[in-house]
Write a structure and sequence with these properties.
105 residues; Alpha-Beta Plaits; 4-stranded antiparallel sheet; 37% helix; globular
Length: 105
């Protein structure tokens, strides 16, 4: 599994909301391009972290790298401060995991 975590601080709440709506409509081809999951964590009124989980690094490099970097560039043009980290990951799922907590796309 491969994970990328984007930390974004927006200039204001309206910019954050606009980007979140745009992301829902443009970054949603999960099963088609190997992205397994995306979590958006509201850190504050003007910042969020986005955790994207991919099948593996090769799939991320093939389908996600350019898409995410273009999206980050758009955020920067709106005045946001963007940083990220990424790497190989291991995961566990609890026996009580309830996938109905997630919107399936």
């Amino acid at each position: 599994m491969y994970v990328r975590i984007n930390q974004v601080k927006f200039p204001n709440k309206m910019a954050k909301q606009a980007v979140q709506k745009h992301a829902q409509s443009t970054l949603s081809k999960f099963g088609e391009n190997g992205r397994l999951m995306r979590l958006t964590v509201d850190v504050s009124e003007i910042s969020h972290s986005v955790i994207s989980i991919w099948e593996d690094k090769e799939t991320y490099k093939k389908f996600g790298f350019d898409e995410m970097n273009k999206f980050n560039q758009m955020e920067k043009e709106m005045g946001a401060v963007v940083s990220y980290s990424e790497g190989e990951a291991l995961g566990e799922i609890s026996k009580i995991f309830d996938k109905s907590l997630f919107e399936e796309k």
